[in-house]
Amino acid sequence: MGSCISNEAYDAAVLVPVKQPLAVIHSKFASPIPVTLIMKKKLWSWSGDDFSIKDLNTGVPYFKFDGSAFSFRDKKTLLDFKGNPVAIMEEPVLSFTRWQEVFKPDMTKWFDITPRITMFENVLDCEVRDCVTGKKYVLGVQGNWLARKSVVTCNGVPIAKIRSPITYIRDVYYVDIAKGVDMALVVLLCMALDEAVERR
Questions:
Q1: How many domains does the structure of the chain reveal?
Q2: Residue range(s) defining the domain that contains residue 159
Q3: Record's superkingdom (predicted)?
Q4: Which residues pair with 63 in a beta bridge?
Q5: Residue 33 maps to which CATH number?
Q6: Are 35 and 55 in contact (CB under 8 A)?
Q7: DSSP-derived 3-state class of residue 12
Q8: Which residues pair with 188 in a beta bridge?
Q9: Is the dihedral of CA 6, 197, 170, 182 positive or negative?
Q10: pLDDT of the chain along its 200 residues, tens only?
């Protein structure tokens, strides 16, 4: 789900800590404090440079990509900071809607991410299940992903905000994540949205 929102609505969107940690990939990725991650567009193409996804404020690395983890172009493996596989994202063969399948490290199917990004709409369809409580959630995006000015929602509630740096840094954008939200899940959503832009 998603839509375009005004600059005022984007600025007014407040990230409120979730009452119960949202843990889809793993509970260890649900930070006890708000976190801002540094991301890069087409992140998978930077694997040769060993680009790590880090905390903007502390420099602590959380995730990265390793080129040796890819079997072919449309298969991307998210690793934790120690190099352990976290999740694998793959675009199905002959996928006309550009949706992404997400698998566990043992290649067990996890969930799907279906983004649609154009100049006129920003849509994200994704249903996930909490790995601790079993509760289902519906994820969406609002705003302007092409300008990296968007809000990621869970059941309609903002859980992350995407923004560009005040000073221009090529291909870099920031992701503010609410307290208690699965950071790995948000990174995978950003990857899928970036891929949708690349393939549109």
A1: 1
A2: 1-199
A3: Eukaryota
A4: 53, 80
A5: 2.40.160.200
A6: yes
A7: helix
A8: none
A9: positive
A10: 655 666 777 888 899 899 899 999 999 999 999 999 999 876 655 444 556 899 999 999 999 876 554 445 468 899 999 999 999 998 887 656 678 999 999 999 999 999 988 777 888 999 999 999 999 999 999 988 888 999 999 999 999 999 998 876 678 999 999 999 999 999 999 989 988 887 65
